[in-house]
Amino acid sequence: MDQTNLNWQWLNEPKEWKIQDDRLILVTQPFTDYWSQTHYGFIKYDAPTYVTKVKGDFIFTCKVNYHTKVLYDQAGIILFEDKENWIKASSEFHDQNYSTLGSVVTNLGYSDWGYQNVSSQYKEFYYRLKRKGQDFNIEFSYDGKEFHEIRVCHLHKEIHETSVGIYACSPQDSSFQAEFSQIKLELIQ
What we know:
Blueprint: E1 8-11, E2 16-20, E3 23-27, E4 34-36, E5 43-45, E6 49-55, E7 58-66, E8 74-82, E9 85-93, E10 98-107, E11 110-119, E12 124-132, E13 135-141, E14 148-154, E15 161-169, E16 177-187
Antiparallel strand pairs: 1-6, 2-3, 3-16, 4-5, 6-15, 7-12, 7-16, 8-9, 8-15, 9-10, 10-11, 12-13, 13-14
Pfam families: DUF1349 (PF07081)
Protein name: DUF1349 domain-containing protein
Organism: Paramecium sonneborni
């Protein structure tokens, strides 16, 4: 994981993490999550999150490998403006048969979730987040070459400089190891 040109920082630093062979490896802690109000009525923003600041339009790409085992365990990418405005994309474990590949967009304190089912045999995805003004494209890939759109979305709060990076969490009483590699942040002029 090349950190030479980017200033990375933790939001909710996990107890166990390391950078090894250009990979960030972390172990989630129980009862951590990102969600805000909608349907479930709770607010959570305590998942281990490693981000860097970025201004303007960009493309952020990352390979995520994970070893989920309990319902709702998840790992992916995140754009975090503040506690009421953020976007995440990840694979969320459901059971041995399927997981959900999806995204959550939180605008003005309310989250919404869009997803599709995928086989739980997949333990590795590439994610890509593209920003153009206030609009975002979220994509995934099995091989890092051919990307497929998950979602197009918009953040209502005007943002100039924001934080983008990775996250992983275990909303239930569990923990798992997640690995993040091939992290690339490309600024678009």
